[in-house]
Each structure stands twice: as C-alpha cells, then as structure tokens.
Amino acid sequence: MPPSPTSRAIRNPKTRFNWRVSDRIRWTLSRWYELRAKLTGQKYYCHALAGEAEYDITINSDLTVSCNCQDYDGSGHIGDLRKNSFEEIFFGPVAGQFRDDLAKGKVPIPTCARCGSFRRLKRGEAPPKPHLPHKGMLLENTVICNVDCIGCAREGAANIRVKKTMPLEELSRMADLAARLGMERIFYLNLGEPFLSPTITQELPLLREKNPNAYIRISSNGILLNTDAKREAALNLSDIQFSIHGISNEMCERYMMRGDFDKAYANMKAMVAYRDARGAKMPILEWKYLLFNWNDHPKIIARAMEMAKEAGVDIISFWPTGNPFYGVSWRYRLGLMKHIGRDSWKGREVILRPDIASAAK
C-alpha cells in the first residue's frame, strides 16, 4: 500500500511515521471487515449518516461537509455548502453511496474502520432509514493550529481546505443552520485551535444567540485563551475542555510539540477565576488529559489531580488513546487505573464540583 496523501503531506518525521502506520492499520482493518462480510454475511451501517450520532458530521472551515471528524485527506467529504443545501448533501449521491456500500458489507473509506460511528448490523437486520441529524455536529471555525500533535494529521486537511478560517458571515450562516436543524449539541472544534480565529470574541456570542438551548463545547490547548475579551466570549459556552497532557512542559511536548504547559495551565486557572468572579456556573471547565505510557505513572496522575484542584477546574478526565501507536497507556489497558474517579465514555473522570455531576456530558 503506497503512502496516503495524508502522510505525504505531513512535514514532521515523527508524525508522518505514526500516520503511515495508522494508515496501514486502517487499510488492514478495512480489508478484514470486508472479508468477514463475504464469509459471514456481516453488514454494516454508519451511525452518523443515519442521523443518530451526536458527533462526527462535520462542517469544515471551507464549508465542505465530512461524514467524520478524522477526515484528513478529504475522502470523507460528502458535499459542499457553497454549492448545495445541507439536506441535498446529507441525502445526496456521495452519502448515499457510502450507506449502500456499508449495507453490502463494504468499507467505503479506510477511516470507517476506526470510527465510532461504524456499526455492525445483526444478521437479517436492515440498516436504519436515514434522517437529518439533530443530536449534534462539529463546526470547525479554523483548521490552523498553534501546536503540532503527533496524533493529528491536520496538515493534510489544511492543504485541501479552500479557506483555512471561516469568515464571520459564513459562521453566522452555519449557526443558523444548526438552529434550523435543532442541534442539541454543537462541538465548536475539529482540526484547528478555535481561539486562533481573529473573530472568536464575536463568534461565540453569535453562536449562543442563535442556539440558546444548545450544549456548546470547545476543546482547546488553552495557550491562546489568554485575554479577558476571550474569556468573556467563552462564558457563552457550555463546556471547555483544556487539552493538557501531562504536568510539565517536557511531558506535554512529547505529544504536543510547540505547546507550552505553563501557559496552558495558567490560562486554565485564569478562566476558572474569571468565571467564578462573575458568579457564573458555566461553562463547565475540564482538564482533558490524554493518557500515554510516559504520563500515566500513579505519582504523576496523583499530582495532576492535585493541580486540577489547585486550578479550580470542575473535572479532570483521563482519556486512553491508541494514537500514536507507540504511546499506548498499558496501565489503563490492563485495568490498573479503575480506582481513579468514575468510568465514562472518555475513560476515567474525576468530578471535582459535585453540583455538575449530572450536567457533565
């Protein structure tokens, strides 16, 4: 299998090597799923393209629409909102072909093989009839980022985006679209750093105004959430996840190159203080800690929880990941972290503010 367009586009050698391996794994899994379908009659469907997922359907910064949140090479593009309506795209020929392939036991794009929306059908079960999504969607305001994560092939996506940052006028239209679809959850994130957008202080109030009842989440590395104007805008959010993967610069930079632990931690702490000084309960502020075999020692985890309490965040969550493949946390995989907090879809999470236990989603 030749290198994919994704891995060829990545400049960092370590990231490129990781994604070549990841590409091979996805390709191998895809062939296995198709072989199993031939041998057993197994069929598949896409939870996102059925309209049932609260994640994965993504509006990119150039108004292209992807069926998944890991669409680094554009193979998951199902349409373009500059040319067609969302309804025409969602029920259009590309999305329809993906659904048909899955229903025949085929894997339309390698990304399917490791996607949370890839589902198996029971023998004799028909795929669900698709309907417009309303549970959730991703909205990418920018594909530009100030850091370089080993597990992110963002460069590949950035190379094919016609617009790297979505203009405010187009964002306003996308906010209207989310409202028209009745989106319950809006993930204002994807492959870039949301707070890198020059109009972020206008975007968040606008998004909230047009979607007053939606649960709106941002995931940020925290380095650029560094002014009171941005913090004031962030009060329009339901949830901010600060992606900080360790307790020191050295530890964090093994995954997030060009990152800055000290700045990110200080800005996370400052956001807590800004919110609390105004008597606000929202947004929920969460330290999102990806687990690797270099940051999962019990003493490190204990110190991270102490620092989370010192910062005043509401949650610290520990997320297992298989990307990069060589960084897998075997302590987590072997069940040695079950005593930490509570089990969740994230992995493990520790709720530090009891009154938000039911609100944290």
Brief account:
With 361 residues, the protein is of the alpha/beta class. The protein contains twelve helices and 15 strands. A hairpin with a 2-residue loop joins β14 and β15.
What does this structure look like?
- This protein has 361 residues and is of the alpha/beta class.
- It is built from twelve helices and 15 strands.
- An eleven-stranded mixed beta sheet has the order 4-3-2-6-8-9-10-12-13-15-14.
- Strand 12, helix 11 and strand 13 form a beta-alpha-beta unit.
Can you give keywords for this protein?
alpha/beta, 12 helices, 361 residues, 15 strands, eleven-stranded mixed sheet, two-stranded antiparallel ribbon
Oligomer: single chain
Radius of gyration over C-alpha positions, nearest whole angstrom: 20 Å
List segments where confidence is low: pLDDT < 50 over at least 5 consecutive residues: none
Percent strand? 15-25%
Terminus-to-terminus distance: 40 Å
Strand order of the largest sheet: 4-3-2-6-8-9-10-12-13-15-14
- Main beta sheet strand tally, sense and closure: 11 strands, mixed
- Looking at the structure, what is the overall shape? globular
Q: What is the residue-mean pLDDT, rounded to a whole number? A: 93
Computed structural class:
alpha/beta
What letter string, H or E per element, gives the SSE order? HHEEEEHHEEEHHEHEHEHEHEHEHEE
Q: What level of helicity do the residues show?
A: 25-40%
Q: Quickly count the helices.
A: 12
Instruction: Count the beta strands.
Output: 15
